[in-house]
TrEMBL record:
It is found in: Cell membrane. SUPFAM superfamilies: MFS general substrate transporter. Residues 4-380 form the Major facilitator superfamily (MFS) profile domain. It comes from Streptomyces prunicolor. InterPro entries: MFS, MFS_dom, MFS_Efflux_Transporters, MFS_trans_sf, Tet-R_TetA/multi-R_MdtG-like. The chain crosses the membrane at residues 42-63, 70-91, 103-122, 129-150, 156-179, 200-223, 238-256, 268-286, 292-310, 331-352, 358-378. The lineage of its organism: Bacteria, Bacillati, Actinomycetota, Actinomycetes, Kitasatosporales. This is MFS transporter. It is a multi-pass membrane protein. Keywords: Cell membrane, Membrane, Transmembrane, Transmembrane helix. Pfam families: MFS_1 (PF07690).
Amino acid sequence: MPLALLALAVGAFGIGTTEFVIMGLLPEVADDLHVSIPTAGHLVSAYALGVVIGAPLLAAVTARLSRRTVLIGLMVLFVAGNVLSAFAANYDYLLAARFLSGLPHGAFFGVGAVVATTMVAPERKARSVSLMFLGLTVANVVGVPAATLMGQHLGWRATFLGVSAIGLVAIASLAFLIPHDHAHAPAVGLRRELAALKSLPVWLALGTTVAGFGALFSAYSYITPMLTDAAGFADGSVTLLLALFGVGATAGNLMGGRLADHSLRGTLFGGLLSLAAVLALFPLLMTTEWTAALAVILLGVAAFVTGSPLQLMVMEKAAAGPSLASSANQAAFNLANAGGAWIGGLALAAGFGATSPAVAGAVLAVLGLGVAATAATVDRRRAVPGRERVVAAHVPEQAPALHP
């Protein structure tokens, strides 16, 4: 695999760290800025809102720029948001800074996925996307715990300065390792990017992302009470168990990339079916500590097996304008985060038990399978004779491979 993929992974590592670390630092932030923890929790929502708005918006306005330039510019914006977070004078300034930090998130992964696929042979496209996403999953295993520990000992502001340093490393890596693509990057333009979003298959692919990852977040948002109330773990054990989720997510991400290069739709169906099964078994698995730990790992594997296939599916369906659609898929991921957490919360509030959010997630995973099956039916009706397999073939057709 090209070394340039490392630059994308470094950027993904920084973004993943800053997205999730705030959850572990809410008590410190709330105490320092003299707000309640629920109020401090709005910092999570501000970041997610930035992702949802920034993903399609920044991808659209930069459609005619070199993708290499766009990636570097997005990381500059990322660093600026984190530096402003570190020096925020009060809660309102920090809220605005977190929104700013979220703006480049979706566009970076969206444009980065397109760039990653241009640097490899057609049969390795899914693996190239999974290697970029590797930075995101490793952030949950290494980056978030390390950054949380830094914030607890040196203050939460030090954490954001540390994440800013990661962003600077990412900028340098992108500048030195990503080939210049000015020869073909302006080939699409905003009008074709927007036109690609009119396609029904694109919206079905985005709908699969919302339902599929909504299933994950329905359960994962309430994993702590499941582990403590149902499985009987002590509060101090939860951090280690969440690291196990990151290990499972990393393994699932790499597995999904490899499998999707052989069968994109088969991997997607298999991942969603596995996710539904794991979530449906949560009430049983959360009865003992060792099976609960196994459930956390399996949840990470099953959910992230679908990550690369979903990203690649959206790009393939929007072959005429992949950057905007790919970025929109990141917005869909964050909508899944919010919607899944809301649905899981409804199940919990209804008094169905600590593991009920997982059962609700299983229903969402089945819904995702239904949307994916509908998309497959639409594809068969629109199939081009002689085309046997769905691949992200848009890159060689729309833009030649990058060259240093």
